[in-house]
Amino acid sequence: MRKGIYKAAALILAGTMCAGLTACSGKTQETKVQETAVQDTKEAQTGETGKEPASEAGKESAAPKKKVSLVLATNWGEGDSKYNYFYPKFQEFQEANSDTMDITLETYSTEDYKTKIKTQTASGDLPDVFTYWGGAMMTDMVEAGLLLDVEEYFNASDQVKRDGFEPTSFGYYTASDGKTYGIPIESTRGIFLANKQLFEENGLEIPKTYEELLKTAKAFNEKGIIPIAIGSNGGTPSEFFFSELYGQYDGAAKELEELAATRTFNTENALKVANNIKDMIDQKMFPADTVANGG
């Protein structure tokens, strides 16, 4: 691992360090150049450096503090709404901690980011702090001993504590050894938006059951209207649709919560969802070939 002493903490430390702890440091080169220019101008105008002359004997005590260098990686790149919120917080963190921390921020597109993290997992050189997915996606990192037990982070932090989070949200980052290796920073909810005008024009009610959905889909198809608009670029975001359907079944929430530990996905509930989606495809509820494998 980098410097031999840091282990990476998956997913949230990026968020808590930059939003919760108020800081993430390592100023950009541009900022450093601007500050140097201001200091040089002051010295030229006043002849002062803002520092007391050091005697020969006192030079050693004036040695600069050693900075902690960290790499912070995320798939929240420019153009992502989360980046628009996160990056100003990151800059604030840099400014507040520039004397003790030097942080390099790396951002990638989602698929490039997954490839990068997999490669770094194989080489044992993960970023010090990074956002990532839990569940089975972190298993290789856990088994390689590359992730930090978040209890160590909470114990060391004066501002961020485990009881500040919804307890069940840690399930996604709890491995089979019972330890938690990530801290949640967001949750996702799936929703349907209904075009009321189309329903009214065709004398249809918004369906509340699957049986009603089947009838509605048939009526729309007869009019040449695609019943459900859902896209899937390499599996994204159709996995959310799959998960939302999965969550409707008894016991499914617990199965998903324990997925990282059990590593079992071919459950009865998962097969039900797969069959339901296949039936929806057969009933032409989606655009052609839109819910596909991937991701």
Gist of the model:
It is built from 12 helices and 4 strands; from the N terminus they run βααβαβαβαααααααα. The two termini are 28 Å apart. The protein has helices spanning 13-20, 29-46, 81-96, 110-123, 139-143, 150-156, 196-201, 210-222, 238-246, 252-257, 259-262, 268-282; strands spanning 9-10, 68-74, 101-107, 129-130.
Question: Helices and strands in order, then pairings?
Answer:
Blueprint: E1 9-10, H1 13-20, H2 29-46, E2 68-74, H3 81-96, E3 101-107, H4 110-123, E4 129-130, H5 139-143, H6 150-156, H7 196-201, H8 210-222, H9 238-246, H10 252-257, H11 259-262, H12 268-282
Parallel strand pairs: 1-4, 2-3, 2-4
Helix pairs in contact: 1-3
User: Which overall shape is indicated by the principal axes computed on the Cα atoms?
Assistant: elongated
Largest sheet: 4 strands, parallel
How many whole angstroms does the radius of gyration measure?
26 Å
Q: List the uncertain runs.
A: 1-55
Structural class: alpha/beta
| Domain count | 2
What is the N-to-C succession of helices and strands? EHHEHEHEHHHHHHHH
Average the pLDDT over all residues and give the rounded result.
Answer: 78
The spatial strand order of the largest sheet comes to: 1-4-2-3
Beta-strand percentage range? 5-15%
Oligomer: single chain
Q: Tally of extended strands?
A: 4
Task: Give the helix proportion (percent range).
Answer: 40-55%
Query: How far apart lie the N and C ends?
Result: 28 Å
> Helical element count?
12
Instruction: State the name of the first-level CATH class of the largest domain.
Output: Alpha Beta
